[in-house]
Structure formats: C-alpha cells, structure tokens
Amino acid sequence: MSENSEHHYTEGDIAREVSELETKSATASRIFDLRRIIGGLFVVYGVIVTITGITDSRSAIDKAQGVNINLWTGIGMLVLGVFFLVWLKLRPAAPQQED
Questions:
Q1: pTM of model > 0.85
Q2: Which residues are CB-neighbours of 81 under 8 A, at least 6 positions away?
Q3: For residue 69, what are the CA distances in angstroms to 17, 31, 48?
Q4: What is the distance, to the nearest Å, from the Cα of residue 73 to the centroid of all Cα atoms in its chain?
Q5: Could you give the CA distance from residue 34 to residue 39 in angstroms, rounded to a whole number?
C-alpha cells in the first residue's frame, strides 16, 4: 500500500465519524444499563409470581402457615423492579467523557 491512497479524510470527516461513534457508544451504554435489565426482570417475574399468588389455592396458602407468600413476594418484586426503572428514568446514564 502506498501513502497516496484514493481516500483522503479531512478533519471534518474524522470529527463527524468520531461523533457518530460517540453517539453509538452512548446509546449502547443506555441500552445495556444494569438498572434496565434488573428492573425489567424483576417486573416480569413479579407479575408472574403475583398472578400465581392471586390464583393460589387455600391449601397452598395453608402450607405457608396462612401467608400468601407468592402474592407478597410478587408485590415486593414488582416494587423493586419499578424502583429500578424509575431510578433509570430519573438518573439516566451519562455518557463517559474521554479526557
């Protein structure tokens, strides 16, 4: 390869490309924020366990000494999941600044 290649990049081209990569990196960091993953999983599992608790039979509740453990655990999971998602909404991940 020679130094005289057909592609000549100007400072504007490089700056634009760097800006696009920074935008993609910031988007990826927001998508893969652990608060989103943990909150989403807790909400999904919380819904499943809450529905199980609502539909539990009397014998299942009696096995837990009269406490509808599935219902209370499901509600707790929902609250925790919603907490993580609200936290994510109120304090979004700031893009990292390279020095």
A1: no
A2: 38, 39, 40, 41, 42, 43, 44, 45, 46
A3: 54, 33, 13
A4: 21
A5: 8
**CA–CA separation, 80 vs 69, rounded Å?**
16
Task: Give the Cα separation of 69 and 63 in Å (integer).
Answer: 10
**Residue 55, amino acid:** T
Please state, as a whole number, how many other Cβ atoms lie within 10 Å of the Cβ of residue 57.
Answer: 8
Looking at per-residue confidence, does 51 or 7 come out higher? 51
Token code pair at residue 92: 């979004």
The token pair that represents 41 in the structure block: 């999983």
> How far apart are alpha carbons 36 and 82 in whole angstroms?
10
Pair of tokens at residue 21: 């990569």
Structure tokens at 30: 């927001």
